[in-house]
Fold:
Amino acid sequence: MRVSKVFRYGGLSIAAIAFLATIAHFTWTLSGTGEWQDLDETDSIQIATLKVPGEGALKYKVRMHVDARLSDVVAFLSETETGNDLGAYDIRRLEEVSAPPVFYAYDTYKLRLPEPLGELEVVIINQYAQDPETKTVRVNVNAAPNKLPLDPGIRRIVHLSNSWTLTPLPDGGVNMESVSEMDLGLPYVMANLAMPSVIRENFSNIRALLKLDKYKNKQPAFIAELPERRATSAPVTAGLVSPE
Amino acid sequence: MKTMIACVAFALALTMAHLAWKGAGSNEWQLARDENGIQVFTLKTPGQALLKVKARMKLDTRLSSAVALLRDDPFAVDAGKEIRVIERIETPEVYLSYIAVEEVPAPLGSRELVALVNYSQHADKRVEINVQAAPTKAPPGGTSPRVKHLNNVIQLSPSADGRLEWEVSSDVDMDVPYPLANFALPRELFDQLSRQRARVLTQKYAHAKLVSVREL
Structure:
């Protein structure tokens, strides 16, 4: 076969693949119902996904029950030491504001992900608020990449948003719900395929870690238990300022 | 055959230009515009295609006036656009709110924004306002794509002569091609500060008092 023919057919094949990939990309990106769809329930961890028309990456909602006190779950999520058990390192608290009913903290940590992602730096704000009546705790975690000067030697996550709802039950235990979205730098096709199993593993880890003694009998100053299980610390009494 | 070669050469040239731009940058702020008392700077970080933009001005206004304007409307959106407060907590020590704007103007169409706004005051009375995208704070449902990457930092520094230094550092991805975003962002930030300067000097904000802000 002559070189020019090889070049012609090779070029046509590449053009055809690029064309099909472009069509597939636009078809996928524009698809979606904008509503949560149940994906999987394994080991009592429920995962639902949401596809927004116009976006490539999926959003995730996870529900799980844990046999733990609300205070222990909040401490688990809010204390920087927890990161060591979840694969993070170089964990630092940059700023902490605890003025009930508000608690928020800026934290930074690093993660080492499989190649080609490599090392990632995360700078986030964690904000906690508790409903004074139901004792439900809402935790909002959002990327705050400019809270710390940029280190050009490491990639920093700029899109990460996670909203937790922690509902204590009168007969014990806490229902955890997490709505999350993030961009770790993976092409969305790979991220959409990989994230459900990553999420399932993370939640499974959380449930196992909460059984360890070191995560029990915690008492964050800004959290009150349900009346039957109320701890001895001063309850949070101030409420939210109603929006106008 | 010639068309095929031209297409391949064009794609190659685009790829080279993209890689050259992405790898470029001093990671230092460069003055891009100095006009009407507003200075605009850009920063190109090697490895990132989007520019960061910073703008600065000095005003004869009170700290409380500036914070009152910025905390509920950090982007100086058009007067007709509704800014919805999802949640707000204010005490003498702390301020924190989640806001939603349905249609923020952007190149190639508008965007929906859900953001966390919080500020703290330093011992020297300087106020730092942080605005962070919080896309999971409200259920999806708007008609425009929601902004996922935004982290603006606003520094308000009062001085003894009564003037206020007003600096906005903007780091935002409106999900438009970066050449277009890099062209539009410095202009938009200049216009934003111009609008904010005009609004903060109006009667509505001139005598604002906030429990969470102490004047110099």
